[in-house]
Amino acid sequence: MSPEDVVHSFISAIEHQDLDAALALVTESVSYENMPMDPVVGSTAVRAVLEGYLAPVTEVEWKIISQWCVGDTVINERLDRFRIGDGWLELPVAGIFRVEGDRITLWRDYFDMGSYVRQFTEITA
Amino acid sequence: MSPEDVVHSFISAIEHQDLDAALALVTESVSYENMPMDPVVGSTAVRAVLEGYLAPVTEVEWKIISQWCVGDTVINERLDRFRIGDGWLELPVAGIFRVEGDRITLWRDYFDMGSYVRQFTEITA
What we know:
The structure is a homodimer.
Chain A: H1 3-15, H2 19-23, E1 26-35, E2 40-41, H3 43-54, E3 59-70, E4 73-84, E5 87-100, E6 103-110, H4 113-123
Parallel strand pairs in A: 1-6
Antiparallel strand pairs in A: 1-2, 3-4, 4-5, 5-6
């Protein structure tokens, strides 16, 4: 698989809320970094964080707005959409993925956490 | 100038707080997008926004953590540092710049606004 194939498969697994499939595409020592928060290191910890994010979610759609691949790095602009109850939470994200072989070693997302929190609060009010 | 040269010169102008030099490197209809806020469109509006950001700032340093250039697009991860009074405000940013000829037509930054606001409040308390 090319780095873009790996990232595409990973995002597809997240959209299907299939964490087994998603975690099969990261290394054991993967670093997952929601900037500027502390890195979440290791696939077990990443699974726990993703389970938390997805717990209230019934549908996931991550629209790729732009994507670039340079060597082993895939960079994308996304609109990450999460259906929670009757509402959709929509989050613009810039993501950087480093891929070694068939697995992601680094996943770093830049986004506005306040926008996530405000929408989550509105939807679940 | 290559797209990377244009972005490098633009960032250097910002670091020198030389808005005339910075604005000479954007098109009249430039779109400046701090996601997920509404775009700031046009060089006059961009100048006003940058003047506001830089007003309390005595030093600016934008460290490039990673940078990629694909065609007319430059993507970077930065640590944008602003000296305000005795403190430094530090903001991790992912930026996307589209360049036409010698000028930037799109400047889109992804970052956590809450981190900016919290640090600004602490520094100026």
